[in-house]
Amino acid sequence: FSGSADPCRAFLLYRPEREGFLTKLRERRDCTMNINEATITRIRTLSKAQRLSMYELAYKTGMPPSTVKSIMNGKSKNPGIVNIKKMAEGLGLTIREFYDDDIFDNLEQDE
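Request: output the structure for the sequence above.
Response:
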């Protein structure tokens, strides 16, 4: 992330192999995320833990791969609770379990 003026946008460059990076930024309070950024990060972390590709996640959720890709790349600014619920279920979680994570603490206000 060298040269990045805004570490809070690190999620755009986030890759699962750098999993601890965002946690370290948040602990130092250098970074806050909005709900969409935190949701994407949570899905990536869970997908990595289950070794799922974006295509495999789409298959498990029953969603078109283009929709999953749009959500995961941040192009869908408001993916909707129904789609997030499908993704959570595809990852083997209830919506409550999905959002029960420290990443959703201290989110920045959306404008």
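The first helix runs from residue 20 to 27.
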